[in-house]
């Protein structure tokens, strides 16, 4: 088996921005609550990846016999502190 472990995935339906889409879904229901963040969100890092990049990585791996038995961490090129994502 080959294991793929992608980071947060965003896609075409998130044209207004993956960050706005996902975090508005999290924050809206909790708008009346204050949710504490570990280290104020400064130590948690996220690297979201576009859905096409994930599918391309999987396609490339399944075509390569040496990938059998491997584990792949798949993440995007940009890193964000959780605090940056929430404030966006």
Derived from helix and strand composition plus strand pairing, the structural class reads alpha/beta
- Euclidean distance between termini CA atoms: 38 Å
Largest sheet composition: 2 strands, parallel
Summarize the amount of helix as a percent range.
25-40%
Order of helices and strands: EEHEEHEEH
Strand order of the largest sheet: 1-5
What's the average pLDDT?
Answer: 83
Total DSSP E strands = 6
The 3D shape can be described as elongated
Low-confidence stretches: none
Radius of gyration: 16 Å
Which percent range describes the beta-strand content?
15-25%
State the assembly state of the protein chains: single chain
Counting structural domains, the number is 1
Please report the number of helical segments.
3
Describe what you observe in this structure:
This protein is an alpha/beta fold. It has one domain (3-87). It is 32% helix and 18% strand. It has 3 helices and 6 strands. It has helices at residues 18-27, 51-62, 82-87; strands spanning 3-6, 9-10, 45-46, 49-50, 71-74, 80-81. The strands form 3 sheets. Strands 1-5 form a two-stranded parallel ribbon. The chain has a two-stranded parallel ribbon with strand order 2-4. The relative contact order is 0.30.
